[in-house]
Amino acid sequence: MGSRKTQLTVAVIGCGTLGTAIAAGILDPKDNKAYEIKRLVCTVGTESSQRRVETVFANHRSRLTVFTAEHNVSAVQEADVVLLAFKPFKRAEVFEVPGFKEALRDKVIISIMAGITTSELSRLSFGEQAVSKGEASLQSVRAMPNMAARIREAVTLYTSTPGTSKENIDFASWVFSQVGEAYPIPEKSFDICAVLVGCAGSLLLLAIDGLLDAAVAEGVRRPEVQNLVVNSAIGMMKLVPAGDHPGVLREKIASPGGCSIRALMELEKLGVRSAFTSAILAAAEKSKNMSSTR
């Protein structure tokens, strides 16, 4: 890929929720100076999903093709870049289809399969023997966006296989920058950071749901206070990257004899802080083990 505006064909294999969000970002990019998606080829599991994707991208019909999964090989063959967006437990099923591995050769591969390392991606593409002998050479990027890609406010972490060119890494960074912010990270830190990006939001949503339950218990309808709670939480969270440490902020809010300190004391009594820590560590351990579960 050169420095001038490059026209590319991208295949999205397993175009579910995240795959659709990323595809939407690159079809209608915030930054279209360097790259242009000439054609998008998507594959999905069912005919109903095929209709869904065609409907979502109705405005881009002239450069969109949507196949069902039995056409994965031909979709990859047509592409310059392949986004692997299917669930990680399906990887053996997808890679074992005759011709799929061969079709991936000389392609740029971007994988958003949770927990799948770059070495596992190389093994899937070339086989264990080729990887162990150092014969595998894959231009690939492993990434983990979160669900906020749907509204283009995702945080995406990415890392690459050794030998992946700067041009290909730059393209992957561009892809994820269209749906939010993209950050390179060493693979040794990937599992813990990925679950922080991918799981922390769901844990915070659980906390917000608990706060709303309290409102309902006090006689207030959930829809009446949902936006108040969510927007309040978003505002407070934005103070952290602005330079305030979470612990310092907490102390500023919890004035002596006030409501906040009583609520915080109750949470500490219930072990909420350590519960959050344990939850993330458990998720990170699951992520580390996913590449070895075949």
TrEMBL record:
Protein keywords: NADP, Oxidoreductase
Binding site for NADP(+): I13, G14, C15, G16, T17, L18, T43, A85, F86, K87, P88
A biological process from GO: L-proline biosynthetic process
GO molecular function terms noted in the UniProt entry: pyrroline-5-carboxylate reductase activity
Residue span, Pyrroline-5-carboxylate reductase catalytic N-terminal domain: 9-115
Pfam families registered for this protein in UniProt: F420_oxidored, P5CR_dimer
Limits of the Pyrroline-5-carboxylate reductase dimerisation domain: 187-290
Residues holding NADPH: N72
Annotated Gene3D superfamilies: NAD(P)-binding Rossmann-like Domain, ProC C-terminal domain-like
HAMAP family the UniProt entry points to: P5C_reductase
PANTHER family on file: HYPOTHETICAL PYRROLINE-5-CARBOXYLATE REDUCTASE (EUROFUNG), PYRROLINE-5-CARBOXYLATE REDUCTASE
Family, as annotated: Belongs to the pyrroline-5-carboxylate reductase family.
Name used for this protein in its record: Pyrroline-5-carboxylate reductase
Species this chain originates from: Penicillium salamii
